């Protein structure tokens, strides 16, 4: 009758579900996708290859990768009526609001109830979504700056196509910078999937009722937007800019430790990692590469490095096992490439769509799958009789 609310997604085991996609050892800081560690994948693989791995369970052969990339490239365009959908948003609408709305609207364009029963068709529609996310994301950015949309160019790579649709203009030829393309592709790999995080659990729970896949992914996008989750990349860079100079770091570290202050170090801490997030290590290395290539020196990087150093040597952070996570450095790279902070979580959602789709496919392929039904510990009043209004 008493006690705290406990969230049980309604699955039979104490874990929320069984999955073969991603393994995390939070104490050791290990992240594997189908058995391959994120360090090797981010250094040696491509986002299309990792997408294939997550969706199919094995690294593809050259022919399989070419075929997968070809299929994806043939679904990158949006229905023209959807392009007009953007015009209903205010120009200053947050791109995550636009992405959430447009992806949800896809459920009105690419699905009817008869398909729901056909898992294979639901899988095809999910690949279609992976193809359209770069177009949807780029269009959200273009709309926010009042520039015309660019159609996809299927001669470019998945990531190169996204960069061109985002930063290209009809009046000029756009040359994809291979160093930026590689860094962006690596960032997509680092964000592709992460076990049963809040947004993935949202997609699974929504999808467990047999709902339209696009509507389920829109629910995941909404959840990812929160600053405690994917929205932390935008919040982390805004925090680093607010700190501004290394001499102001101690003040913010003390604020983060003050229980009466709602401020937290954005990009720090994690529900699962009680060690360094292996993705943050790759991110920090990529910052150096991008700054060298673009010959930029954003002072916020020095603030981030010194903040990390001070926090990791602070007894509070040591005791609470708080380390930088995937969101701590990512914004510095994205800002150097030219993205505004409002686009950071959109890029996270673009990449995480692969994980959401793979997790969703895994769930609908399980013949024993049941609808999720979270339970609770009830803490309200015990049973009592109604009191008529005249007696109250
Ligand atoms: C992502 O789940 C995933 O896998 C998510 C993700 C993915 O790929 O999908 O990895 C992506 O969402 C990464 C997290 C991004 N969020 C942020 O960077 C926001 C800042 N961090 C936090 O708000 C926080 O760390 C959470 C929300 C991520 C986790 O919060 P919890 O559940 O409170 O973490 P915890 O239980 O480990 O906290 C232990 C203690 C708590 O204090 P006490 O209650 O023990 O006194 O550490 C404190 C927390 O209050 N704490 C922090 C802190 N994070 C936790 N104190 C200051 N600054 C922080 N950042």
From TrEMBL:
SUPFAM superfamilies: Citrate synthase. Pathway: Carbohydrate metabolism; tricarboxylic acid cycle; isocitrate from oxaloacetate: step 1/2. GO terms for molecular function: citrate synthase activity. It catalyses: oxaloacetate + acetyl-CoA + H2O = citrate + CoA + H(+). Gene3D superfamilies: 2.20.28.60, Citrate Synthase, domain 1, Cytochrome P450-Terp, domain 2. It comes from the Bacteria. Keywords: Acyltransferase, Transferase, Tricarboxylic acid cycle. Belongs to the citrate synthase family. PANTHER family: CITRATE SYNTHASE. This is Citrate synthase. It comes from Sphingorhabdus arenilitoris. The lineage of its organism: Bacteria, Pseudomonadati, Pseudomonadota, Alphaproteobacteria, Sphingomonadales.
């Amino acid at each position: 009758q008493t006690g705290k609310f406990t969230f049980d997604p309604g699955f039979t085991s104490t874990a929320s579900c069984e999955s073969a996609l991603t393994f995390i050892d939070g104490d050791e800081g290990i992240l594997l996708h189908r058995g391959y560690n994120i360090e090797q994948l981010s250094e040696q693989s491509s986002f299309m290859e990792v997408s294939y791995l997550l969706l199919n369970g094995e690294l593809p052969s050259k022919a399989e990768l070419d075929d997968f990339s070809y299929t994806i490239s043939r679904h990158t365009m949006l229905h023209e009526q959807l392009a007009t959908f953007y015009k209903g948003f205010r120009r200053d609408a947050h791109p995550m609001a636009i992405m959430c709305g447009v992806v949800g609207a896809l459920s009105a364009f690419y699905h009817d109830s008869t398909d729901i029963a056909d898992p294979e068709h639901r899988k095809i529609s999910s690949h279609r979504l992976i193809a359209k996310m770069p177009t949807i994301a780029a269009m959200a950015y273009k709309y926010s700056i009042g520039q015309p949309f660019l159609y996809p160019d299927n001669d470019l790579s998945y990531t190169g196509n996204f960069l061109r649709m985002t930063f290209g203009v009809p009046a000029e030829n756009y040359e994809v910078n291979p160093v930026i393309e590689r860094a962006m592709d690596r960032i997509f790999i680092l964000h592709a999937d992460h076990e049963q995080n809040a947004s993935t659990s949202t997609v699974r729970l929504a999808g467990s009722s047999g709902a339209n896949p696009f509507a389920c992914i829109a629910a995941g996008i909404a959840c990812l937007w929160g600053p405690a989750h994917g929205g932390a990349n935008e919040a982390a860079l805004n925090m680093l800019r607010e700190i501004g100079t290394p001499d102001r770091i101690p003040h913010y570290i003390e604020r983060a430790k003050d229980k009466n202050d709602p401020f937290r170090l954005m990009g720090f801490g994690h529900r699962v990692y009680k060690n360094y997030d292996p993705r943050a290590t790759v991110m920090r290395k990529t910052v150096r590469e991008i700054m060298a290539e673009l010959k930029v020196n954003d002072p916020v990087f020095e603030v981030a490095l010194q903040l990390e150093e001070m926090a990791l040597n602070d007894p509070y952070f040591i005791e609470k096992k708080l380390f930088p996570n995937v969101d701590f450095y990512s914004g510095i790279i994205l800002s150097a490439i030219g993205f505004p902070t409002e686009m950071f979580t959109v890029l996270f959602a673009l990449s995480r769509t692969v994980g959401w789709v793979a997790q969703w496919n895994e769930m609908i392929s399980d013949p024993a799958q049941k609808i999720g039904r979270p339970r609770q510990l009830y803490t309200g009043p015990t049973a009592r009789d109604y009191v008529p209004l005249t007696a109250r």
